[in-house]
Amino acid sequence: MMTKDKKLELLNIIARDENLTYAQMALLAGMSEAEVAATIYELEQEGVIVGKHTLINWDKAGQERVVALIELKVTPQYGEGFDRIAERMWQYPQVRSVYLMSGAYDILVEVEGATMKEVALFAAERIAPMDCVVSQNTCFVLRKYKQNGIVYEKDNQDDRQVVL
């Protein structure tokens, strides 16, 4: 039986770099490859590890993608709170993420489309008409600098020495 601390250590290793091999993870965590494999399987079955995601810089790949963050002020559903609204949002294929928020807005929805018009029409035709939506604010992402802990493009560093 793997200790909770060892599981958390392994999760932190995976969170930093999901592309490591079991051998590399085992070395970093002080475990055997078999223990790593069994623990990862167990964590997947428990729903702790819910997916793996490759981060792609679509600009460099030559495919334009438009991302918008839509802030929603909503009226919670009786007996179900915000869960039913969030579930309704994540059903759309354009929706990448849904978050319950504190602050001025209740729900944040990340939407992706091929064009700004496509995303704007989605917000206007799918989200705005919902009875529970009191107001919405759509912000288009103009440039991604860092996502999931990964910096998209680092500027060339100036290695010249300062002359006084």
Topology:
Elements: H1 4-16, H2 22-29, H3 33-45, H4 58-61, E1 66-74, H5 83-90, E2 95-100, E3 107-113, H6 116-127, E4 133-140, E5 146-147, E6 150-151
Antiparallel strand pairs: 1-3, 1-4, 2-3, 5-6
Main β-sheet, spatial strand arrangement = 2-3-1-4
Look at the structure and give the mean pLDDT: 90
Globally, the shape reads: extended
Uncertain residue ranges: none
CATH architecture of the largest domain: 2-Layer Sandwich
Distance between the termini: 61 Å
N-to-C series of helices and strands: HHHHEHEEHEEE
Structural class: alpha+beta
Describe it for me?
35% of the residues lie in helices and 21% in strands. The longest helix is centred in the first third of the chain and has 13 residues, at 4-16. With 164 residues, it is of the alpha+beta class. The mean pLDDT is 90. Strands 2-3-1-4 form a 4-stranded antiparallel beta sheet. Strands 5-6 form a two-stranded antiparallel ribbon.
